[in-house]
Amino acid sequence: MSDATSTASPDRARSTELGPMAAFLKATELDTRMLGMIGALLVIWLGFHIFSDGLFLTPRNLWNLSVQSSSVAVMATGMVLVIVTRNIDLSVGSVLGFVGMIIGVTQAEILPRYLDFGHPAIWVIALLVGLLVGILIGAAQGYVIAFLGVPAFIVTLGGLLVWRGAAWWVTSGRTVAPMDETFRLMGGGPAGSIGATASWIVGLIACAAVVFMLFNGRSQRKRFRFPLRPVWAEFFLGGVACAAILGAVWIANSYPWPIGIVRNYARDNNITLPEGGLFIAHGIAIPVLIAIGVGVVMSFVSTRTRFGRYVFAIGGNPEAAELAGINTRWVTMKIFMVMGALAAIGAAISTARLNAATNAQGTLDELLVIAAAVIGGTSLAGGAGTVAGAMIGAVLMQSLSTGMILLGVDTPLQNIVVGLVLVVAVWLDTMYRKRMQ
Hints:
By secondary structure, the chain is mostly helical. It is built from 17 helices and no strands. The chain has helices at residues 2-15, 20-28, 32-51, 59-84, 92-110, 122-146, 152-171, 195-223, 231-253, 259-268, 286-304, 306-316, 318-323, 328-354, 365-375, 387-406, 411-436.
Protein backbone atom coordinates (compact mmCIF):
# COMPACT_ATOMS: atom_id res chain seq x y z
CA MET A 1 0.00 0.00 0.00
CA SER A 2 2.92 2.36 0.73
CA ASP A 3 4.19 1.94 -2.84
CA ALA A 4 0.74 2.64 -4.24
CA THR A 5 0.35 5.71 -2.03
CA SER A 6 3.78 7.10 -2.87
CA THR A 7 3.16 6.54 -6.57
CA ALA A 8 -0.31 8.04 -6.52
CA SER A 9 0.63 11.18 -4.54
CA PRO A 10 2.75 12.83 -7.25
CA ASP A 11 0.10 11.87 -9.81
CA ARG A 12 -2.57 13.62 -7.75
CA ALA A 13 -0.34 16.65 -7.40
CA ARG A 14 0.20 16.82 -11.14
CA SER A 15 -3.49 16.19 -11.86
CA THR A 16 -4.46 19.31 -9.88
CA GLU A 17 -2.56 21.35 -12.46
CA LEU A 18 -4.73 19.91 -15.26
CA GLY A 19 -8.30 20.70 -16.15
CA PRO A 20 -11.07 18.36 -14.90
CA MET A 21 -11.41 16.55 -18.25
CA ALA A 22 -7.65 16.24 -18.78
CA ALA A 23 -7.24 14.95 -15.22
CA PHE A 24 -10.03 12.42 -15.78
CA LEU A 25 -8.49 11.15 -19.03
CA LYS A 26 -5.07 10.95 -17.40
CA ALA A 27 -6.41 8.98 -14.44
CA THR A 28 -8.44 6.52 -16.51
CA GLU A 29 -5.86 6.34 -19.34
CA LEU A 30 -8.65 6.29 -21.91
CA ASP A 31 -7.68 6.61 -25.58
CA THR A 32 -9.04 9.93 -26.81
CA ARG A 33 -9.21 8.66 -30.40
CA MET A 34 -11.28 5.69 -29.27
CA LEU A 35 -13.57 7.96 -27.26
CA GLY A 36 -14.00 10.21 -30.27
CA MET A 37 -14.94 7.26 -32.47
CA ILE A 38 -17.45 5.94 -29.93
CA GLY A 39 -18.89 9.43 -29.64
CA ALA A 40 -19.22 9.67 -33.43
CA LEU A 41 -20.92 6.26 -33.49
CA LEU A 42 -23.45 7.36 -30.86
CA VAL A 43 -24.16 10.59 -32.77
CA ILE A 44 -24.74 8.58 -35.97
CA TRP A 45 -27.08 6.20 -34.14
CA LEU A 46 -29.10 9.04 -32.60
CA GLY A 47 -29.28 10.89 -35.91
CA PHE A 48 -30.55 7.87 -37.82
CA HIS A 49 -32.97 7.05 -35.00
CA ILE A 50 -34.50 10.52 -35.19
CA PHE A 51 -34.70 10.71 -38.98
CA SER A 52 -36.04 7.14 -39.30
CA ASP A 53 -38.93 7.89 -36.90
CA GLY A 54 -37.55 5.66 -34.18
CA LEU A 55 -36.67 2.61 -36.28
CA PHE A 56 -32.89 2.54 -35.83
CA LEU A 57 -32.35 2.09 -32.09
CA THR A 58 -34.65 -0.90 -31.77
CA PRO A 59 -33.62 -4.39 -30.59
CA ARG A 60 -34.43 -5.83 -34.01
CA ASN A 61 -32.30 -3.36 -35.96
CA LEU A 62 -29.39 -3.41 -33.51
CA TRP A 63 -29.39 -7.22 -33.48
CA ASN A 64 -29.35 -7.33 -37.29
CA LEU A 65 -26.65 -4.64 -37.31
CA SER A 66 -24.42 -6.79 -35.11
CA VAL A 67 -24.85 -9.81 -37.38
CA GLN A 68 -24.24 -7.83 -40.57
CA SER A 69 -21.07 -6.30 -39.09
CA SER A 70 -19.56 -9.65 -38.10
CA SER A 71 -17.78 -10.70 -41.30
CA VAL A 72 -16.31 -7.23 -41.92
CA ALA A 73 -15.25 -6.97 -38.26
CA VAL A 74 -13.46 -10.33 -38.46
CA MET A 75 -11.48 -9.28 -41.53
CA ALA A 76 -10.80 -5.80 -40.13
CA THR A 77 -8.84 -7.35 -37.24
CA GLY A 78 -6.38 -8.76 -39.78
CA MET A 79 -6.32 -5.61 -41.87
CA VAL A 80 -4.96 -3.79 -38.82
CA LEU A 81 -1.78 -5.90 -38.95
CA VAL A 82 -1.50 -5.44 -42.71
CA ILE A 83 -1.79 -1.65 -42.58
CA VAL A 84 0.39 -1.34 -39.47
CA THR A 85 3.27 -2.78 -41.54
CA ARG A 86 2.62 -0.13 -44.24
CA ASN A 87 1.00 -2.61 -46.61
CA ILE A 88 -2.54 -2.94 -47.96
CA ASP A 89 -4.77 -5.83 -49.00
CA LEU A 90 -7.26 -4.97 -51.73
CA SER A 91 -8.15 -8.61 -52.38
CA VAL A 92 -10.02 -9.56 -49.18
CA GLY A 93 -13.48 -9.13 -50.72
CA SER A 94 -12.61 -11.31 -53.70
CA VAL A 95 -10.89 -13.87 -51.46
CA LEU A 96 -14.07 -14.00 -49.36
CA GLY A 97 -16.14 -14.63 -52.50
CA PHE A 98 -13.77 -17.32 -53.81
CA VAL A 99 -13.43 -19.14 -50.49
CA GLY A 100 -17.19 -18.89 -49.94
CA MET A 101 -17.71 -20.58 -53.29
CA ILE A 102 -15.19 -23.30 -52.40
CA ILE A 103 -16.96 -23.89 -49.07
CA GLY A 104 -20.34 -24.02 -50.80
CA VAL A 105 -19.27 -26.41 -53.54
CA THR A 106 -17.46 -28.64 -51.06
CA GLN A 107 -20.44 -29.14 -48.78
CA ALA A 108 -23.26 -28.99 -51.33
CA GLU A 109 -21.80 -30.85 -54.32
CA ILE A 110 -18.55 -32.72 -53.58
CA LEU A 111 -18.92 -34.25 -50.11
CA PRO A 112 -22.54 -35.47 -50.60
CA ARG A 113 -21.15 -37.87 -53.24
CA TYR A 114 -19.33 -39.70 -50.45
CA LEU A 115 -21.36 -38.79 -47.36
CA ASP A 116 -25.09 -38.37 -46.89
CA PHE A 117 -26.22 -34.75 -47.13
CA GLY A 118 -26.58 -33.59 -43.53
CA HIS A 119 -23.77 -35.83 -42.28
CA PRO A 120 -22.24 -34.11 -39.20
CA ALA A 121 -18.76 -34.15 -40.74
CA ILE A 122 -19.71 -32.29 -43.93
CA TRP A 123 -19.74 -28.77 -42.55
CA VAL A 124 -16.56 -29.36 -40.53
CA ILE A 125 -14.64 -30.63 -43.56
CA ALA A 126 -15.97 -27.80 -45.74
CA LEU A 127 -14.94 -25.20 -43.16
CA LEU A 128 -11.44 -26.70 -42.83
CA VAL A 129 -11.09 -26.74 -46.63
CA GLY A 130 -12.09 -23.06 -46.73
CA LEU A 131 -9.58 -22.14 -44.02
CA LEU A 132 -6.82 -24.04 -45.84
CA VAL A 133 -7.61 -22.31 -49.14
CA GLY A 134 -7.66 -18.90 -47.45
CA ILE A 135 -4.30 -19.51 -45.76
CA LEU A 136 -2.74 -20.73 -49.03
CA ILE A 137 -4.00 -17.66 -50.88
CA GLY A 138 -2.56 -15.42 -48.16
CA ALA A 139 0.73 -17.33 -48.26
CA ALA A 140 0.98 -16.98 -52.04
CA GLN A 141 0.31 -13.26 -52.00
CA GLY A 142 2.52 -12.75 -48.96
CA TYR A 143 5.41 -14.60 -50.62
CA VAL A 144 5.23 -12.43 -53.73
CA ILE A 145 5.13 -9.29 -51.58
CA ALA A 146 7.78 -10.23 -49.03
CA PHE A 147 10.27 -12.34 -50.99
CA LEU A 148 9.83 -11.13 -54.58
CA GLY A 149 9.54 -7.47 -53.65
CA VAL A 150 6.34 -6.69 -55.55
CA PRO A 151 4.38 -3.89 -53.82
CA ALA A 152 1.37 -5.10 -51.81
CA PHE A 153 -0.89 -2.67 -53.66
CA ILE A 154 -0.13 -4.30 -57.00
CA VAL A 155 -0.21 -7.89 -55.74
CA THR A 156 -3.53 -7.54 -53.96
CA LEU A 157 -5.03 -5.44 -56.75
CA GLY A 158 -4.22 -8.33 -59.04
CA GLY A 159 -5.65 -10.69 -56.43
CA LEU A 160 -8.88 -8.68 -56.43
CA LEU A 161 -9.33 -9.51 -60.12
CA VAL A 162 -7.91 -13.04 -60.02
CA TRP A 163 -9.98 -14.39 -57.13
CA ARG A 164 -13.18 -12.70 -58.28
CA GLY A 165 -12.74 -14.38 -61.65
CA ALA A 166 -11.82 -17.66 -59.98
CA ALA A 167 -15.04 -17.58 -57.94
CA TRP A 168 -17.01 -17.38 -61.18
CA TRP A 169 -14.87 -20.08 -62.80
CA VAL A 170 -15.53 -22.63 -60.02
CA THR A 171 -19.22 -22.93 -60.92
CA SER A 172 -19.41 -21.00 -64.22
CA GLY A 173 -21.49 -18.34 -62.51
CA ARG A 174 -23.97 -20.66 -60.75
CA THR A 175 -25.25 -19.96 -57.25
CA VAL A 176 -24.64 -22.91 -54.94
CA ALA A 177 -27.33 -23.71 -52.37
CA PRO A 178 -28.53 -24.85 -49.87
CA MET A 179 -25.90 -25.08 -47.17
CA ASP A 180 -25.64 -27.70 -44.44
CA GLU A 181 -28.16 -27.14 -41.61
CA THR A 182 -25.52 -27.05 -38.89
CA PHE A 183 -23.25 -24.81 -40.96
CA ARG A 184 -26.09 -22.30 -41.33
CA LEU A 185 -25.96 -21.64 -37.59
CA MET A 186 -22.81 -19.58 -38.22
CA GLY A 187 -24.97 -17.06 -40.07
CA GLY A 188 -27.31 -16.15 -37.22
CA GLY A 189 -31.09 -16.25 -37.32
CA PRO A 190 -33.39 -17.70 -34.62
CA ALA A 191 -31.57 -21.05 -34.69
CA GLY A 192 -28.16 -19.39 -34.99
CA SER A 193 -28.46 -17.62 -31.64
CA ILE A 194 -27.77 -18.90 -28.15
CA GLY A 195 -30.96 -17.77 -26.39
CA ALA A 196 -31.58 -15.60 -23.35
CA THR A 197 -30.14 -17.75 -20.56
CA ALA A 198 -26.90 -18.58 -22.36
CA SER A 199 -26.53 -14.91 -23.35
CA TRP A 200 -26.73 -13.77 -19.72
CA ILE A 201 -24.15 -16.41 -18.79
CA VAL A 202 -21.82 -15.19 -21.54
CA GLY A 203 -22.34 -11.61 -20.37
CA LEU A 204 -21.50 -12.45 -16.77
CA ILE A 205 -18.40 -14.39 -17.85
CA ALA A 206 -17.31 -11.38 -19.93
CA CYS A 207 -17.80 -9.07 -16.93
CA ALA A 208 -15.75 -11.43 -14.76
CA ALA A 209 -13.03 -11.40 -17.42
CA VAL A 210 -13.00 -7.59 -17.41
CA VAL A 211 -12.64 -7.50 -13.61
CA PHE A 212 -9.85 -10.09 -13.75
CA MET A 213 -7.99 -8.15 -16.44
CA LEU A 214 -8.17 -4.93 -14.40
CA PHE A 215 -7.05 -6.72 -11.22
CA ASN A 216 -4.25 -8.56 -13.02
CA GLY A 217 -3.10 -5.39 -14.77
CA ARG A 218 -2.93 -3.55 -11.45
CA SER A 219 -0.99 -6.42 -9.89
CA GLN A 220 1.51 -6.39 -12.75
CA ARG A 221 1.99 -2.65 -12.40
CA LYS A 222 2.71 -3.04 -8.70
CA ARG A 223 5.13 -5.85 -9.43
CA PHE A 224 7.18 -3.79 -11.86
CA ARG A 225 6.67 -0.50 -9.94
CA PHE A 226 4.78 1.18 -12.77
CA PRO A 227 2.43 4.11 -12.05
CA LEU A 228 -1.00 2.96 -10.83
CA ARG A 229 -4.40 4.25 -11.82
CA PRO A 230 -6.48 5.61 -8.91
CA VAL A 231 -8.76 3.01 -7.37
CA TRP A 232 -11.83 5.00 -8.40
CA ALA A 233 -10.64 4.89 -12.03
CA GLU A 234 -10.34 1.08 -11.88
CA PHE A 235 -13.91 0.83 -10.53
CA PHE A 236 -15.13 3.31 -13.13
CA LEU A 237 -13.59 1.38 -16.04
CA GLY A 238 -14.90 -1.95 -14.74
CA GLY A 239 -18.37 -0.53 -14.12
CA VAL A 240 -18.68 1.09 -17.56
CA ALA A 241 -17.40 -2.03 -19.34
CA CYS A 242 -19.76 -4.34 -17.46
CA ALA A 243 -22.70 -1.98 -17.98
CA ALA A 244 -21.99 -1.92 -21.73
CA ILE A 245 -21.72 -5.74 -21.86
CA LEU A 246 -24.90 -6.39 -19.89
CA GLY A 247 -26.72 -3.67 -21.85
CA ALA A 248 -25.79 -5.37 -25.12
CA VAL A 249 -27.05 -8.70 -23.74
CA TRP A 250 -30.31 -7.07 -22.66
CA ILE A 251 -30.83 -5.66 -26.15
CA ALA A 252 -30.12 -9.05 -27.76
CA ASN A 253 -32.59 -10.69 -25.40
CA SER A 254 -35.23 -8.06 -26.18
CA TYR A 255 -35.50 -9.19 -29.81
CA PRO A 256 -38.03 -12.05 -30.01
CA TRP A 257 -38.40 -14.78 -32.59
CA PRO A 258 -40.84 -13.98 -35.43
CA ILE A 259 -44.40 -15.14 -34.69
CA GLY A 260 -44.42 -17.65 -37.53
CA ILE A 261 -41.31 -19.41 -36.26
CA VAL A 262 -42.71 -19.37 -32.72
CA ARG A 263 -45.89 -21.07 -33.92
CA ASN A 264 -43.90 -23.77 -35.71
CA TYR A 265 -41.71 -24.25 -32.65
CA ALA A 266 -44.75 -24.56 -30.39
CA ARG A 267 -46.41 -27.04 -32.76
CA ASP A 268 -43.30 -29.20 -33.07
CA ASN A 269 -42.81 -29.28 -29.28
CA ASN A 270 -46.51 -29.65 -28.33
CA ILE A 271 -46.56 -26.27 -26.57
CA THR A 272 -49.86 -24.45 -26.18
CA LEU A 273 -49.50 -20.82 -27.17
CA PRO A 274 -50.74 -18.45 -24.44
CA GLU A 275 -53.28 -15.79 -25.32
CA GLY A 276 -50.69 -13.02 -25.46
CA GLY A 277 -48.28 -15.08 -27.53
CA LEU A 278 -45.00 -16.77 -26.62
CA PHE A 279 -41.88 -14.63 -26.22
CA ILE A 280 -38.67 -16.46 -27.17
CA ALA A 281 -35.59 -14.27 -27.23
CA HIS A 282 -32.92 -14.55 -29.90
CA GLY A 283 -30.06 -13.79 -27.55
CA ILE A 284 -26.57 -13.20 -28.88
CA ALA A 285 -26.06 -14.38 -32.47
CA ILE A 286 -23.39 -17.00 -33.13
CA PRO A 287 -21.60 -14.89 -35.80
CA VAL A 288 -21.29 -12.10 -33.24
CA LEU A 289 -19.70 -14.52 -30.79
CA ILE A 290 -17.32 -15.65 -33.54
CA ALA A 291 -16.36 -12.03 -34.29
CA ILE A 292 -15.82 -11.27 -30.58
CA GLY A 293 -13.74 -14.44 -30.19
CA VAL A 294 -11.59 -13.51 -33.19
CA GLY A 295 -11.21 -9.99 -31.81
CA VAL A 296 -10.02 -11.27 -28.42
CA VAL A 297 -7.52 -13.65 -30.05
CA MET A 298 -6.21 -11.02 -32.46
CA SER A 299 -5.90 -8.45 -29.63
CA PHE A 300 -3.85 -10.96 -27.66
CA VAL A 301 -1.70 -11.77 -30.68
CA SER A 302 -1.04 -8.12 -31.49
CA THR A 303 -0.25 -6.96 -27.95
CA ARG A 304 0.96 -9.99 -25.99
CA THR A 305 3.07 -12.06 -28.40
CA ARG A 306 6.48 -11.73 -29.99
CA PHE A 307 4.85 -11.83 -33.42
CA GLY A 308 2.68 -8.84 -32.53
CA ARG A 309 5.67 -6.86 -31.27
CA TYR A 310 7.52 -7.65 -34.48
CA VAL A 311 4.56 -6.41 -36.54
CA PHE A 312 4.51 -3.02 -34.83
CA ALA A 313 8.29 -2.78 -34.90
CA ILE A 314 8.26 -3.31 -38.66
CA GLY A 315 5.54 -0.71 -39.06
CA GLY A 316 7.39 1.82 -36.92
CA ASN A 317 10.72 1.46 -38.74
CA PRO A 318 11.25 -1.43 -41.19
CA GLU A 319 15.00 -0.82 -41.57
CA ALA A 320 15.61 -0.71 -37.81
CA ALA A 321 13.50 -3.84 -37.32
CA GLU A 322 15.58 -5.73 -39.87
CA LEU A 323 18.84 -4.51 -38.31
CA ALA A 324 17.52 -5.70 -34.94
CA GLY A 325 17.39 -9.25 -36.28
CA ILE A 326 13.68 -9.51 -37.12
CA ASN A 327 12.96 -11.65 -40.18
CA THR A 328 10.75 -9.00 -41.74
CA ARG A 329 10.01 -11.04 -44.86
CA TRP A 330 8.74 -14.06 -42.95
CA VAL A 331 6.70 -11.86 -40.60
CA THR A 332 5.10 -10.10 -43.57
CA MET A 333 4.24 -13.41 -45.19
CA LYS A 334 2.65 -14.65 -41.95
CA ILE A 335 0.57 -11.47 -41.74
CA PHE A 336 -0.97 -12.18 -45.13
CA MET A 337 -1.54 -15.82 -44.16
CA VAL A 338 -3.47 -14.60 -41.10
CA MET A 339 -5.40 -12.23 -43.34
CA GLY A 340 -6.30 -15.14 -45.64
CA ALA A 341 -7.52 -17.23 -42.70
CA LEU A 342 -9.67 -14.36 -41.44
CA ALA A 343 -11.13 -13.82 -44.93
CA ALA A 344 -12.06 -17.53 -44.90
CA ILE A 345 -13.85 -17.10 -41.55
CA GLY A 346 -15.65 -14.07 -42.98
CA ALA A 347 -16.60 -16.18 -46.01
CA ALA A 348 -18.06 -18.88 -43.76
CA ILE A 349 -20.17 -16.34 -41.86
CA SER A 350 -21.36 -14.67 -45.07
CA THR A 351 -22.17 -17.96 -46.83
CA ALA A 352 -24.01 -19.30 -43.80
CA ARG A 353 -26.05 -16.10 -43.45
CA LEU A 354 -27.08 -16.16 -47.13
CA ASN A 355 -27.55 -19.96 -47.12
CA ALA A 356 -25.84 -19.84 -50.51
CA ALA A 357 -22.53 -19.17 -52.21
CA THR A 358 -22.87 -16.51 -54.88
CA ASN A 359 -20.49 -14.73 -57.24
CA ALA A 360 -21.45 -11.37 -55.76
CA GLN A 361 -20.28 -12.29 -52.26
CA GLY A 362 -17.73 -9.91 -50.83
CA THR A 363 -18.12 -7.28 -53.55
CA LEU A 364 -16.59 -4.02 -52.25
CA ASP A 365 -15.94 -5.64 -48.85
CA GLU A 366 -12.28 -4.72 -49.25
CA LEU A 367 -13.24 -1.05 -49.07
CA LEU A 368 -15.39 -1.58 -45.98
CA VAL A 369 -12.62 -3.53 -44.25
CA ILE A 370 -9.95 -0.94 -45.03
CA ALA A 371 -12.29 1.88 -44.01
CA ALA A 372 -13.13 0.09 -40.74
CA ALA A 373 -9.44 -0.28 -39.88
CA VAL A 374 -8.59 3.33 -40.77
CA ILE A 375 -11.63 4.80 -39.03
CA GLY A 376 -10.72 2.63 -36.05
CA GLY A 377 -7.41 4.45 -35.68
CA THR A 378 -5.01 2.37 -37.78
CA SER A 379 -2.52 4.74 -39.37
CA LEU A 380 -1.79 4.34 -43.08
CA ALA A 381 1.71 5.57 -42.26
CA GLY A 382 2.20 2.37 -40.26
CA GLY A 383 3.15 1.56 -36.69
CA ALA A 384 -0.18 2.36 -34.98
CA GLY A 385 -3.55 0.63 -34.75
CA THR A 386 -5.80 -1.38 -32.47
CA VAL A 387 -8.00 -4.40 -33.09
CA ALA A 388 -10.79 -3.05 -30.88
CA GLY A 389 -10.82 0.21 -32.83
CA ALA A 390 -11.09 -1.64 -36.15
CA MET A 391 -14.06 -3.66 -34.88
CA ILE A 392 -15.83 -0.50 -33.74
CA GLY A 393 -15.01 0.98 -37.14
CA ALA A 394 -16.73 -2.01 -38.78
CA VAL A 395 -19.87 -1.36 -36.72
CA LEU A 396 -19.71 2.32 -37.67
CA MET A 397 -19.46 1.53 -41.38
CA GLN A 398 -22.36 -0.94 -41.19
CA SER A 399 -24.37 1.59 -39.19
CA LEU A 400 -24.01 4.09 -42.02
CA SER A 401 -25.18 1.52 -44.55
CA THR A 402 -28.10 0.30 -42.44
CA GLY A 403 -29.21 3.81 -41.53
CA MET A 404 -29.18 4.99 -45.13
CA ILE A 405 -31.21 1.93 -46.16
CA LEU A 406 -33.81 2.77 -43.51
CA LEU A 407 -33.95 6.31 -44.87
CA GLY A 408 -34.38 5.03 -48.44
CA VAL A 409 -31.09 6.48 -49.71
CA ASP A 410 -30.11 5.21 -53.18
CA THR A 411 -27.09 2.89 -53.47
CA PRO A 412 -24.95 5.37 -55.48
CA LEU A 413 -25.41 7.99 -52.76
CA GLN A 414 -24.53 5.40 -50.11
CA ASN A 415 -21.23 4.77 -51.89
CA ILE A 416 -20.56 8.51 -52.01
CA VAL A 417 -21.11 8.80 -48.26
CA VAL A 418 -18.83 5.82 -47.49
CA GLY A 419 -16.12 7.29 -49.72
CA LEU A 420 -16.33 10.69 -48.05
CA VAL A 421 -16.21 9.10 -44.59
CA LEU A 422 -13.03 7.22 -45.55
CA VAL A 423 -11.36 10.39 -46.85
CA VAL A 424 -12.32 12.33 -43.71
CA ALA A 425 -10.99 9.51 -41.51
CA VAL A 426 -7.61 9.57 -43.27
CA TRP A 427 -7.50 13.37 -43.02
CA LEU A 428 -8.22 13.20 -39.28
CA ASP A 429 -5.48 10.58 -38.87
CA THR A 430 -3.03 12.87 -40.69
CA MET A 431 -3.96 15.83 -38.49
CA TYR A 432 -3.66 13.71 -35.35
CA ARG A 433 -0.17 12.50 -36.26
CA LYS A 434 0.97 16.06 -37.03
CA ARG A 435 -0.31 17.23 -33.65
CA MET A 436 1.51 14.40 -31.87
CA GLN A 437 4.86 15.21 -33.52
